[in-house]
Amino acid sequence: MQLLDTPSPLAWRLFFVAGKLLLPAVEGAALAPVPVLDFEPTASSRHYLGRLDGLDCWAITLPDVPDGWQPMALRAAMMQMPAPLLNLAVRAAQIVEWDRTHRYCGACATPTEHKPGERARVCPSCGQLAYPRLSPAMMALVWREGELLLARSPGFTPGIYSALAGFVEPGETLEECVVREVEEEVGLQVSDLRYYGSQSWPFPHSFMLAFTARWVGGEIVPQAGEIEHAAWFPLDGLPGIPPRFSIAGHLIRDTVAAMQGAAS
């Protein structure tokens, strides 16, 4: 990707203040391409993201919320966005967060600098490079005939259940992670893993890789402190599940449709 140093006249500009995305403070207004705005010279950082619909895209951090704009938590903003803009917002948020958290070298604590021509910060003292961080995590939707295993963690929205999820450990394959996490979180054994899809998830830098897995044994034993409740649910009697802006929402709905289609 070409990295630019100056913004173009009309572009997608995603502004952030203290980790929140700025939206127009006009009821019903949505993000749209805008020219350079009068408050943009106050920007703390500016990151080129690529192009969308033929226009350059920028993530820009500001010290304060300018007049005519309002901050919104990223998750809430994402729920209102069409897919292309949602993907852009996810990318912008992760790059802004990476830049914020890598201002100093992790090896010698020297202030880092942007490396020309790369999406990287470099230490001028020891040469340590820091690239945008991604933390791979698996998601596993366990199934058996006519039922799905869904669970909820203590921090979930009340009434919402989802597939199981957990981070990949060093030296571990995705498949090994699925098997381990399912057994750790609910005490079940699985096989016949099938890859479903992936999603970048900016809270703060996860990369979700979703699978389905067939139950082959075990009884549900929720992991203390991690799983508040887990149960088998019939396909026509699911509890509340995540919305479609998350890969979990797509995974569960598409799996239900596939299982119902196979049974008919």
Automatic annotation (TrEMBL):
Alphabetized PROSITE patterns for the sequence: NUDIX, NUDIX_BOX
Coiled coil start-end: none
First-level EC class: hydrolase
Record's keyword terms, sorted: Hydrolase, Magnesium, Metal-binding, NAD
Keyword Phosphoprotein: no
Every Nudix hydrolase domain range: 133-260
Keyword set includes NAD: yes
Cofactor field: Mg(2+)
EC number(s) per entry: 3.6.1.22
The protein, known as: NAD(+) diphosphatase
Gene3D superfamilies linked: 3.90.79.20, Nucleoside Triphosphate Pyrophosphohydrolase (3.90.79.10)
Highest taxon, organism lineage: Bacteria
